[in-house]
Amino acid sequence: MAAAADKHATAHALEGGAVVVWHDDLTSGEGSLRFGLGAGGELSLRWPGSASYGPGATSPEELAAAAHASCFTMTLADTLVRRGRPAREIATEAKTTFGVAAGVRIILRSQLEITVDADGLSEAELEHATEIAGRYCPVSNTFRIAGAEIDVRARPATTRR
After folding, report:
1. Quick check: 43 and 32 in contact, CB under 8 A?
2. What confidence score (pLDDT) does residue 15 get?
3. DSSP symbols for 49-77
4. Together in a domain, 22 and 64
């Protein structure tokens, strides 16, 4: 029975991919990253503690933040549509904090700052939609199960006139 359930679950699974090539050691090395469908071309990959880290390079910390921001934003957009409040724009700024717990490096925290531009959207409606999106975003669920703190702050955009 479990095999049938697993087969059913994987039939609805979504996949993404990337290829990373790394040269040398962690602190002096460098690498490149290419997403499976080619979005963004080839990205320079560096460890944030290296001398070569800086503008033009990305890191696992940034990629984790990007994964969470993109997943949560799309899930929130879907949630708002289902609640009759489609957004014109959702802007999300994300930050992840890596650290050490129980002797291993992990993502300790993910922070999302979200601004939503939608007609007639109250703060209470946005708070409720944000809670729902947090339960359905796979990246949020992965971080939560791993014990990371998730801090989401959402606000309606100010009315433009």
Report:
1. yes
2. 83
3. TSTT-STTEE-HHHHHHHHHHHHHHHHHH
4. no
CA distance linking residue 26 with residue 72, whole number of Å: 30
Same domain, 67 and 37: no
Query: How many residues in the chain?
Result: 161
Q: How many separate domains does the chain show? A: 2
* CA atoms in the 13 A half-sphere facing the CB of 111: 6
Beta carbons of 140 and 150 less than 8 angstroms apart: yes
Domain containing residue 65: 60-156
pTM, two decimals, is 0.85
What is the pLDDT at residue 10?
54
Closest CA to 58 of 40, 69, 45: 45
Residue 82 pLDDT more than 70?
yes
Digit-coded pLDDT (tens) for 101-147? 889 989 999 999 999 999 999 999 999 999 999 999 999 999 999 99
pLDDT (average), residues 32-51: 85
Beta carbons within 10 angstroms of residue 134's beta carbon: 19
Which is it for strands 149-156 and 104-117: parallel, antiparallel or unpaired? parallel
